[in-house]
Amino acid sequence: MDPHLLRHHARVRHEDKSMCWRYYDEKELIELENPLELYIVDISAGGVGVKSFSSISKGNILIFDLPFGLSTYKVMGKVMWVDKRENCYRGGLEFVSLPFSLKESLIELSKLGEEAPLVESY
């Protein structure tokens, strides 16, 4: 079975944009001159689905600000899978580090299940 089809947490749609200025490639921290734009597609307590017009590599750990509700959180996510699409890359990031308050909010949101509404940031 395809590893990115194995889910541990319920996902909800969450559309937003984030910038990644730093990432770990194996154990080396890479600082970017131009940020990697990430388009958040969905979110769960375990991670986020993203889309990018720049290449992202499986295994890298991205450090980025995640807008959620009225707050923005600093998170780290490991790229677990990447699919090259016609004009973009689609990937799944597993959270490596995220604030406890965000994790709690995501767990509560996941209890709403598949019927959860789109979460928008303001």
UniProtKB/TrEMBL annotation:
Domain of life of the native organism: Bacteria
GO MF terms held by the record: cyclic-di-GMP binding
Gene3D superfamilies, A to Z: predicted glycosyltransferase like domains
Record-linked InterPro entries: PilZ_domain
Ranges of residues in domain PilZ: 33-109
The name this protein goes by in its record: PilZ domain-containing protein
